[in-house]
Amino acid sequence: MSGRRGAAARGAHPGVPGGAGNRGVGEPEGVAARATDVPLGATPVLELRDVVTEIRGVRGLVRPVDGVSLTVRAGQVVGLVGESGSGKSMTAFSVMRLFPTKAARVTGGEILLRGGDGRVRDLRTLGPDALRAVRGREIGMIFQDPASYLNPVLTVGRQLEQQLQAHGLGQGADARIAELLTDVGLSPEVARRYAHELSGGQCQRVGIASALACRPALVVADEPTTALDVTIQAQVLRLLARLQRDQGVALLLITHDLGVVAEVCDHVYVMYAGRIVEEGPVEDLFARPRHPYTQGLLAGVLDLLEPKPIRVSIEGSVPDLVRPPSGCRFHPRCPHAMPICEREAPPLLPRDEGAALGHSACWLHDPGVVGAGVTVEPGREDGP
Amino acid sequence: MTTPAAPLIAATGLTKHFPLGRRMFGPRRAVHAVNGIDFEVAVGETYALVGESGCGKTTTARMVLGLEGVTAGALRFHGKPVAELDAAERARFRRRVQVVFQDSNASLNPRKTLRQILGTALTVSGALRGASRAEVRERVVRLLTDVGLTPAESFLDRLPHELSGGQRQRVGIARALAPEPEFVIADEPVSALDISVRAQILTLLARIQRERGVAFLLISHDLAVVRNVAERVGVMYLGRIIETGPVGAVFARPVHPYTAALVDATPLPDPRPEVRARDHVDIRGDVPSPVSLPPGCAFHPRCPIAVERCRSVVPELVPLPDDPGVSVACHRAEERLAGLALPTVSAAHRPRPQEDPA
User: Fold this and answer.
1) Do B224 and A304 touch (CB under 8 A)?
2) Does B69 touch chain A (CB under 8 A)?
């Protein structure tokens, strides 16, 4: 406990308030402090440092999140992308300790949130009540299935009102609710409706209204458009992007859909089997993926406007996390695997000089391992 | 691609209404799942039905399979109405037409080993009636090898839950192939799969088609999959095909406003600012209930260019004057060809952060 307190006591975490681009110099991984694609001076709103989440199950101990570090800066849209079982959703749940199972526990790392007052707190050190005050207030949440979190016996308006009251914003709630519903493209009349009277797209709009109700600095959205039809998905995605821009809220978007990432994200983290394997500004990462897994993923994306012969870009399937592969977890499926990949997990190495373009965890980028230096095999031939 | 004289499968006016309970003193009501669709699938070709949930694409597949009765319309197999097949012909039809379901978890018996699942598919269909155990085993091994589950011997005695999603889908494909079909209906075969596994399954289906000359009816909501896999496509909306033709032609120049909206709504895996900044077709609202279909063109309540006629007269699916390979059911199709554009909204995305230094 005392160790955790220690982390929280670093309230004025170096560089968090008004941190400039030079933050993190000398920090072990420098993950927290990358000047990437956001304007210099954009402050991190959320920072995960070496977060570990474990689930104790009948089949043994599983670590769906195994040392994940990521940063979301003010006003930024950050994508966390991965396949099923990559740990992307568990990472999102870890931020607010809202797990789908009681067997899950955050067992390591720091989860630093910069509150509305500018104070930085480690969410891991917060007790249940303090954490409840953060959820929905300082961090808005959007879930995949809106029907499952809207209360079926309360009207939409009553539900939003309860949320505002719970966070001490009950004054003038009616006007605020009307404003919120209008913002998300619904009629204020919807406040009198129940969830079952709304379509899936309308429910998700209510979900977005709820996420933004308390004017949080950060919204975490877990597959917000996956359950929706294509045309509705596009409407909701564009709505989310517009609100994000207009209200300057930071967005951590969890998705499996690289098309969605390309449409709205500024920065992207790629997760595989519980670890971040590559991260960088979205444009450069799509044009020049460095990690063989990212390369394979992007090569497997089907493009409506530029069809191509389908080829298998990654063999095999996602590993079972009860017995994760040794070393680099991708090595059993990697076309470039070397002996070292089986023995040792690769560190996150800069994707370019100065690390302005993020990091990739692959031994191919280590000049000490591969004499020739970085191997780059872009997944897209038509990249800029 | 040439369409032979007698297509493998031809549907004309295929209709399915599911009756609902009558409200007291109220009119008789029904879910109008499929409302008179025509399509043909040629030998060895892949035809896709694409649309959003509730558009009737899966009901269509179930009617073709005989899992669902037909309210109206006809289905022909090699030119002969399926309804008029005698018992022997019907058995042959059942063998020649197979299906791969979306959810391999739900469609494989959890208590049976792969050897039993595939063995049953081989013997029941008549493909191997009366064969010895050794013969059946040999054929099961060959099927497993064909779908890439190797070494096949190691899979024989496994249960479905011991396999990954991609492996289970391969078993589903092996089962469909067991009776040596000419026609396979693939209902969302890759929707539940991860990107890395999706390509494996799609290349497997392509290889099967190449090697065995199997025709596919692909049911999908994913335009990118359809564009990359199928030869021709029918776009469905509320139980009607509203545009059909070769995939390249239909998606490169969508004439029906709904097709245009679908194409526009499909995310492009290209984050360049000029791509992101593109304008979007302004389509609003949700798909109406199939219980009370809108009169006229079912899309008119959402259509940005609907006129009076669209609200009263159902448009026929007619070939385009400049490209008869493509047919469109829209009263304003000719105006669209003459340059009538759909209203757009500008992109919601802000300029890239690098471009506006704080």
Assistant:
1) yes
2) no
Q: Which residues of A touch B227 (CB under 8 A)?
A: 302, 304, 307
Check CB contact under 8 Å for B224 and A298.
no
DSSP string, A138-204: TEEEE-S-HHHHS-TTSBHHHHHHHHHHHTT--TTHHHHHHHHHHHTT--GGGGG-BGGGS-HHHHH
Instruction: Report the residue from A235, A239, A310 with minimal CB separation from B228.
Output: A310
Q: How far apart are the CA of A23 and the nearest CA of chain B, in angstroms?
A: 17
- Cβ atoms within 10 Å of B90's Cβ, excluding its own: 15
Structural domain boundaries in chain B: 9-235, 262-349
Q: What does the pLDDT profile of chain A (384 residues) look like in tens digits?
A: 333 333 333 333 333 333 333 333 333 333 333 333 444 457 899 999 999 999 998 888 999 999 999 999 999 999 999 998 899 999 999 998 888 888 899 999 999 999 878 889 999 999 999 999 999 899 999 988 877 888 999 999 999 999 999 999 989 999 999 999 999 989 999 999 999 999 888 999 999 999 999 999 999 999 998 888 888 888 888 889 888 888 889 999 999 999 999 999 999 999 999 999 999 999 999 999 999 999 999 999 999 988 888 888 898 888 888 889 999 999 999 999 999 999 999 999 998 887 789 999 999 988 877 654 444 444 433 333
Phi/psi of residue A43, nearest 5 degrees: -85, 140
Q: Among A96, A76, A86, A188, which Cα is nearest to A142's?
A: A96
Per CB-CB distance under 8 Å, the chain A contacts of B223 are: 230, 304
Give the HSE-up count for residue A69: Cα atoms under 13 Å, Cβ half-sphere.
18
Contact (CB, 8 A) for A66 and A275 = yes
Q: Hey, what amino acid is at A335? A: P
Radius of gyration for chain B, computed over Cα atoms and rounded to the nearest angstrom: 23
Do the chains contact at A259 and B269, CB–CB below 8 Å?
A: yes
ipTM of the complex: 0.85
Distance CA A332, CA A323 (A): 13
Which residues in chain A have Cβ-Cβ distances shorter than 8 Å to B353? 37-39, 42, 75-76, 266
Helix, coil or strand: residue B341: coil
Q: How far apart are CA A344 and CA B313, in angstroms?
A: 69
| CB-closest option in B265, B280, B358 to A233 | B265
Q: Where are the beta strands (DSSP E) in chain A?
A: 44-57, 60-73, 77-81, 104-114, 120-122, 139-142, 218-222, 250-255, 267-272, 275-281, 349-350, 359-360
How many CB pairs lie under 8 A apart between chains A and B?
A: 160
Residue A335 tokens, joined: 């076309």
Q: Are residues A146 and A228 in contact, defined by beta-carbon separation less than 8 angstroms? A: no
Rounded to two decimals, what is the model's pTM?
Answer: 0.86
For B271, which of A230, A282, A318 is closest by C-beta distance? Answer: A282
Among partner residues A38, A245, A314, which is closest to B196 by beta-carbon distance?
Answer: A314
CB nearest A303 (choices: B224, B229, B280)? B224
Cβ within 8 Å, pair A304-B223: yes
Q: What values do phi and psi take at B248, rounded to 5?
A: -60, -50
CATH of domain B9-235: 3.40.50.300
Nearest chain B Cα distance for residue A373, angstroms:
27
